[in-house]
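name: query_chain
kind: protein
chains: 1
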Amino acid sequence: MNDIVYTIPEVADYLKISKSKIYYLAKRGEIPSFRIGRNIRILESELVIWLQRQRAKEPSQLMFVIDNALSIGK
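structure:
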């Protein structure tokens, strides 16, 4: 098992978002994480899969917004 284990600050730096946002996502179970004592950690392999799923959601969410906007004009 050679998976890299990241801390919250490392993930925040990588994603260019705040540490508090990563803590929030981890607490809600929206980003895969685990605890070692009081410390939250994120596996690189799970982070990559999560990022791919987030990117896959974008087009469908955009189409939903466009469809709703078009239906309002009818």
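note: Residues 44-72 form the longest helix (29 residues).
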